[in-house]
Amino acid sequence: MEFAGASSLQHLQALSNLLSTQQEDEDDEDCKNINACARLGPGQVGPPPKTDKEVSTPYVKKNSKDIWSEEEVAEGCQYEDDNDPRPQPEYEIILKQSVGTEDIFLGLNGKDPSSMCCESMLVKIKLPDTKATDVVLDVKEKFLDLRTLKYKLGLHLPHPIHSHEGKAQFFSEREELEVTLLIKRPMDFINMP
Which range marks the domain in which residue 36 is found? Predict the structure, then answer.
């Protein structure tokens, strides 16, 4: 009859030989002792870690000390300032689409009243006691930043837009700025025939 301890010692030695990445001739005599085999831990399982190559993932840039990548930071957050006492002006966003009689009566182009068929958006901003020369406007793909002496507006847009193809017009009699922006739709060839 075999001694149970000797059998488990042999199993440990066999397991050690399977998992060991070192050469067999280094410490063969140490594994005959149970205490020497107990020094194996989870760090010795599998191949040794790679130290000569950098691990590159889509979130880590090589040789960069940046904390976040540009994709992770919300557009327009650099304009948000909680300590700025200027109030936000009243504004209204209107989605617009070009329709003709063939769309209204016959439905030939497949357009419907939903926002998926809109081509542009109109942002109306009321700026009382403001001149057109006082307005500073910056439009990004998903963010509109408006600054005047009295007002501040940081507006996250509901749809991405073409930032270089818009137009702005200030109406002095109404004290209102109208910004027309063309909506960027990646699936336009499907949504609008």
Answer: 4-44
